[in-house]
Design the sequence.
């Protein structure tokens, strides 16, 4: 029997005004379930309940918040095998990556559980005698969380956890293509000691539920991760209500491989960075900027490593690269391959659709060589298992090439030179820099974000998240005359 999954609105599981199917991209005959699509009235009910619940939560005391967040985190970690499998089944990443993602999501909750107890403000003397000043952070209010499909549990968790930790209410609109992991996380949150309506899950399309949410004057802050065009639309909608926004968007990350680098490290870092998660990471190493002295040796090893990947069903033992997430994504990738060839890039390997035992969106990872930064394949985010190699003659040219992009999320360098690594770290125009590491793969206790078109608004994660999820209050207190 097909499972019908409901939205969680104002403390109740409720059917939507319609439903969508969720199918496994590794096996299209596998119908995971039907998922509710929230109607406009339901969204209003969730927003109204959130406002009431948030006032209670803000006064609830920090230990109650700490306990709830800790319980969510512990359960996610304890059930990471089961929930990671579900995630892999609906998103297509290999099982181990799904399990790792759910475990990481749990760590965001336990980290922010601890942060609830660390809310220490500032005090000051007024310039006026006899007056003291107390500066403290308060919740921002009702937060809309809009998340993408590529890290459906982790991205949502690094937004929901700090939002709740700092005393806010949350309405979560997950990507419509990965609703199962959203229902699973909501089910855990729904069992905690939270005021009724503090947290709502409002599944539905971006065009309807998402757009209504970002246009609503009942939302105080929007945390969004997704594509640049959608992000720009959200920023425009938010400004009408002066709603606070935080946005993490796409990127076109570059990895510089220097002539003094360890070649094996360079190849391993490039393979992992470019093709992990089928290249569907905002931190993917999609531009490989290679010094001419090691170019040919690097490319030979890169191609061998790319050809050696096992592409297959996300839940099958031995799969290293799963399918891409959807038919649209697959077609977009094939279009980019055709575009690259028409621009003069040389396809060294991969790019073919793959037939497997089950029908799914499989393709072989691909490597383009002979590319340059003027090509569209090096300027636009493909979000695909496609890496583009660019040959450069010097470190200076490599750095200039890395920085020649509208984006600025992550960058990396492979080098044994401390001075080059230091110079690169200080001059790469990205929010995150990696030395002898893939451009993908970040920690949960430090800030994450980028520059240029990659990010807008305050940073996410670590203690830096307080900037977005709280607002500052400055109180002046005159003690009055002694009695
Ligand atoms: P989209 O921008 O298409 O969608 C992101 C979310 O926004 C989804 O929940 C989507 O809903 C929703 N949405 C779509 N249209 C609107 C709208 N008009 N108003 C409000 N919400 C809307 O991105 P994808 O889901 O396709 O994710 C891939 C993108 O995310 C890539 O560009 C990638 O780089 C970026 N990304 C960035 C990260 C970062 O931290 N910088 C991390 C991960 C991904 P629906 O699903 O219904 O379309």
Sequence:
């Amino acid at each position: 029997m097909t499972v019908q999954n409901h939205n969680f609105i104002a403390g109740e599981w409720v059917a939507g005004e319609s439903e969508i199917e969720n199918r496994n991209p590794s096996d299209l005959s596998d119908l995971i379930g039907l998922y509710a699509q929230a109607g406009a009235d339901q969204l209003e009910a969730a927003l109204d309940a959130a406002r009431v619940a948030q006032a209670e939560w803000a006064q609830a005391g920090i230990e109650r918040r700490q306990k709830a967040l800790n319980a969510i985190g512990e359960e996610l970690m304890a059930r990471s095998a089961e929930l990671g499998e579900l995630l892999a089944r609906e998103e297509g990443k290999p099982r181990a990556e799904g399990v790792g993602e759910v475990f990481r999501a749990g760590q965001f909750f336990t980290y922010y559980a601890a942060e609830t107890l660390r809310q220490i403000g500032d005090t000051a003397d007024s310039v006026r005698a006899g007056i003291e000043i107390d500066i403290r952070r308060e919740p921002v209010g009702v937060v809309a969380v809009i998340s993408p499909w590529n890290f459906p549990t982790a991205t949502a968790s690094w937004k929901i956890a700090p939002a709740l930790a700092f005393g806010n209410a949350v309405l979560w609109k997950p990507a419509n293509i990965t609703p199962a992991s959203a229902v699973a996380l909501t089910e855990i949150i729904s069992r905690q000691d939270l005021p009724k309506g503090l947290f709502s899950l409002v599944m539905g399309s971006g065009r309807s539920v998402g757009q209504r949410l970002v246009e609503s004057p009942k939302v105080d802050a929007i945390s969004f991760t997704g594509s640049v065009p959608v992000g720009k639309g959200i920023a425009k909608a938010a400004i009408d209500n002066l709603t606070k926004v935080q946005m993490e968007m796409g990127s076109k990350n570059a990895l510089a491989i220097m002539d003094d680098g360890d070649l094996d490290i360079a190849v391993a870092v490039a393979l992992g960075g470019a093709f992990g998660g089928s290249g569907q990471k905002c931190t993917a190493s999609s531009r490989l900027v290679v010094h001419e002295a090691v170019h040919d040796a690097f490319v030979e090893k890169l191609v061998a490593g790319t050809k050696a990947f096992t592409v297959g069903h996300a839940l099958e033992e031995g799969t290293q690269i799963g399918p891409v997430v959807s038919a649209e994504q697959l077609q977009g990738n094939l279009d980019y391959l055709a575009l690259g060839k028409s621009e003069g890039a040389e396809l060294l390997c991969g790019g073919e659709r793959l037939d497997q035992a089950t029908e799914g969106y499989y393709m072989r990872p691909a490597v383009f060589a002979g590319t340059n930064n003027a090509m569209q394949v090096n300027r636009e985010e493909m979000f695909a298992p496609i890496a583009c190699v660019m040959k450069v003659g010097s470190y200076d040219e490599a750095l200039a090439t890395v920085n020649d992009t509208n984006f600025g999320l992550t960058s990396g360098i492979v080098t044994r030179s401390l001075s080059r690594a230091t110079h690169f770290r200080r001059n790469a125009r990205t929010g995150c820099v990696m030395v002898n590491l893939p451009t993908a793969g970040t920690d949960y206790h430090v800030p994450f974000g980028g520059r240029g078109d990659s990010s807008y608004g305050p940073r996410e994660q670590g203690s830096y998240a307080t900037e977005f999820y709280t607002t500052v209050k400055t109180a002046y207190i005159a003690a009055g005359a002694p009695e």
Residues 253-435 form a domain with the Aldehyde Dehydrogenase; Chain A, domain 2 fold (CATH 3.40.309.10).
